[in-house]
Write a structure and sequence with these properties.
NADP; Ala_DH/PNT_CS2; NAD(P)-bd_dom_sf; alpha/beta; 7-stranded mixed sheet; 11 helices; Rossmann fold; binds nicotinamide-adenine-dinucleotide; globular; 2 domains
Amino acid sequence: MKIAVVKERAEGETRVAATPETVKKFKALGAEVAVESGAGASASIADADYAAVGAEVSADAVRGAGIVLGVQGPDPAALAAAAPGAWVVAGLDPFGQRGRIDAYAAAGLEALAMEFMPRITRAQSMDILSSQSNLSGYKAVIEAANLYGRAFPMMMTAAGTISAAKAFVMGVGVAGLQAIATARRLGAQVSATDVRSATKEQIVSLGAKPIFVESVAGIEGEGAGGYATEMSEEYQKAQAELVSGHIAKQDIVITTALIPGRAAPRLISDAQIASMKAGSVIFDLAVAQGGNVEGSKADEVVVRHGVKIFGYSNTPATLPADASALFARNLYNFLSAFWDKEQGQPVLDAEIGEAVRLTQGGKVVSPRLLG
Ligand code: NAD
């Protein structure tokens, strides 16, 4: 089995889907590995580093490959030389890039979307959303601290005391938990909210204060696989009121709320921004999915009412070396878990196979895309 690692072509993408560490491990499984020239350059991995662990490095890495690895989905036209029915294993953005998924089907390729990995214990080490969100949560706080004209920790100095920054994290999934931990490490006073009541305990365990609507009973906010569901109007109104009062007192707000397959929920309105002190910072981690914050724009610091609002279109790409290392391990953990030594290739089981497979036999087969 030949595994090809492509150079990312999307604008601003700095990551790479395999590292010398994972190439070595794929080779130990008996696979042949080819890496497209320059694939690791923006993640500080030289062609020579791949060659040193036995990869073939060439401009034509895809030729004859049965598995193509990418961070984002490669252009279907660039895969014409791959083996018939080759697997395309990457973050394929199935809802955002539907046309490309159809093109993989038409080309007879089997597209496997790593963001559809089920949230089950045995798949945790294969989950690109978790590994990349964790880094994003960290970077959001670092970037917010960078834009903030004050310090995070309380400092008692001979020239007087500086008070601690107040940071509020909205959405306490993987990114939010890391944002809480990072803001705490920098010395901020941290509070957080989510629609899933299960997060309350996690917020407290990290030393932050939970801000939750208690008045609307019977709402868990948690749907299949631990994902958030869309909330009732009643809940949304109660949450908006509680959060409005709280936001007005914050220096830093980090928003991370996502609902799969839908635009990100709007969490902060222009009126709420206006209630904040000048010099405060809002980091919108959902800006690429439509944004949690009114008026936020990807990769641009927007100033509204003296408040700086910012978010990256691709936050993990701002930490290319670590993001690539974790992404690459996710792909290796996935393929190696199913590696069949006799066949010399991976054979997926039904649970994970059906979850991640988008196309097969010339057709789109994913129920999440067909339904
Ligand atoms: P996510 O990226 O889908 O969403 C981010 C957070 O925003 C979630 O906590 C969500 O509840 C919250 N949110 C959505 N709408 C909101 C709103 N209107 N207001 C406030 N918050 C809102 O979430 P995620 O980071 O992928 O994690 C969700 C859960 O799944 C976590 O408990 C995580 O530990 C779990 N998880 C499990 C596995 C596994 O077992 N393999 C893998 C990944 C995540």
